[in-house]
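[step 3/7] fold_predict: job queued, chain A
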Amino acid sequence: AITNDEVKIYPNPVKEALYFSQASNVTIYNTIGEIVGNWEDASSIDLSKFVVGMYVVMFTNNNGGEIKRVKISKN
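[step 4/7] structure written:
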């Protein structure tokens, strides 16, 4: 099982691709809590078409349980 300390994301702020230290289930929310992207078993995601601003990246396990939540800035 993935733990909070095991998932690293980079770069932050991000312009195009956001990378993870290990494959994860990932959901991205905008600042008002709407889901703007969802990926399963991803090791990177393309954010180049996302609007500039702040987002919350949430990592979940296979049961949907939250592992880690990180704020990122899209430039």
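[step 5/7] annotate
The two ends are 32 Å apart (CA to CA).
The first strand starts at residue 9 and ends at 10.
exit 0
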